[in-house]
């Protein structure tokens, strides 16, 4: 059993003289046992040669035991077909056992590994464990590390010293509290995976836009800036979103600065419809009706106060599903 995959093979079959029987068996196995489409199986067979089913059968059994479903398997193997040639006991099992011991459930592993199969190609001792330990040193709890990894599985592939530490240091140097750093990595881990130059450019733009590094909204602004190009942000900031919220809805500009994520939403599909509903509720007296229970509800609608100022924790706010 040989393959061209660099991670698990010490030899390869020459692509100039492939064995037709190996091609046939490989494509058949990928289709019938792994659920790949004939086209995907044919493509994967260019990187993989299977001779017998014993090794790949063992790999599939192990993956299924650790949460990879039949629906996720094709996605994983399209990206990383040579995984079928890994030694299940020596190469794969220690990685799966480690992650499972750190609060990754089987469902978590299925979701994360099917999204980023190359995690299983990385060294346990040199990459996976050090990266996990670093994330835990920041996030404190294993379950919080899992939460961050579910949002961005590729964070387990990062070179921590070269790519993540410099960003955290840069934030600390401008006064961003540790609680905000934790919030960023837990909820928006993809931001610390940006190229360092891009990240520093975004932080500079956020600072120049008037956001206070001491407040959580600074992190929200970084996330919003990271999700769109500079030209798009400038257009939303100067024209569409701001114009509607200030001139049509009566918001104060300071309120928009407190909630910059608003400008990351579609004006036509989200901002206008929801603001219109809110305005109707006010006109019909629904907001006034509940002022005895939440006295600042009208001020919240007008953007004069933020949700955090009503006593809700940031964790509670992020836990609410967006409609």
UniProtKB/TrEMBL annotation:
**Where in the sequence does UniProt note compositional bias of the Low complexity kind?**
9-20
Can you tell me which family this protein belongs to? Answer: Belongs to the mTERF family.
In its UniProt record, which GO terms are filed under biological process?
A: DNA-templated transcription termination
Q: Which UniProt keywords apply?
A: Transcription, Transcription regulation, Transcription termination, Transit peptide
Q: Which InterPro entries match?
A: MTERF, MTERF_sf
The keyword Transcription regulation is assigned to this record: yes
Q: Which residues cross the membrane?
A: none
Q: Which PANTHER family match?
A: CGI-12 PROTEIN-RELATED, MITOCHONDRIAL TRANSCRIPTION TERMINATION FACTOR FAMILY PROTEIN
| Highest taxon listed in the record's lineage | Eukaryota
Q: What is this protein called?
A: Transcription termination factor MTEF1, chloroplastic
Which species is this UniProt entry from? Vitis vinifera (Grape)
In alphabetical order, the GO MF annotations are:
nucleic acid binding
Record's keyword annotation contains Iron: no
Region of interest called Disordered, as start-end residue ranges on this chain: 1-20
């Amino acid at each position: 059993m040989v393959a061209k995959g660099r991670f698990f093979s010490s030899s390869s079959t020459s692509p100039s003289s492939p064995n037709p029987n190996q091609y046939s068996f490989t494509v058949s196995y990928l289709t019938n046992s792994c659920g790949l489409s004939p086209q995907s199986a044919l493509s994967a067979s260019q990187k993989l040669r299977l001779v017998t089913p014993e090794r790949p059968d063992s790999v599939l059994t192990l993956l299924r035991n650790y949460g990879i479903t039949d629906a996720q398997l094709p996605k994983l193997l399209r990206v990383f077909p040579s995984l079928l040639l890994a030694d299940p006991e020596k190469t794969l099992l220690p990685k799966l056992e480690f992650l499972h011991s750190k609060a990754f459930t089987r469902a978590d592993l299925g979701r994360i590994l099917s999204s980023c199969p190359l995690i299983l190609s990385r060294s346990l001792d040199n990459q996976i464990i050090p990266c996990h330990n670093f994330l835990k040193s920041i996030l404190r709890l294993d379950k919080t590390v899992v939460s961050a990894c579910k949002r961005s599985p590729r964070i387990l592939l990062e070179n921590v010293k070269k790519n993540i530490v410099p960003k955290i240091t840069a934030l600390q140097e401008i006064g961003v509290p540790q609680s905000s750093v934790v919030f960023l990595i837990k909820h928006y881990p993809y931001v610390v995976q940006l190229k360092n130059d891009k990240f520093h450019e975004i932080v500079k733009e956020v600072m120049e836009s008037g956001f206070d590094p001491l407040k959580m909204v600074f992190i929200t602004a970084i996330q919003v800036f990271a999700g769109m190009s500079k030209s798009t942000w400038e257009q939303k900031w100067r024209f569409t979103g701001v114009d509607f919220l200030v001139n049509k809805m009566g918001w104060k500009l300071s309120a928009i600065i407190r909630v910059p994520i608003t400008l990351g939403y579609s004006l036509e599909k989200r901002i206008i419809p929801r603001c219109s509903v809110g305005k109707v509720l006010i006109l019909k007296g629904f907001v006034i009706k509940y002022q005895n229970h939440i006295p600042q509800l009208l001020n919240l609608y007008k953007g004069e106060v933020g949700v955090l100022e009503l006593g809700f924790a940031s964790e509670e706010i992020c836990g609410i599903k967006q409609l």
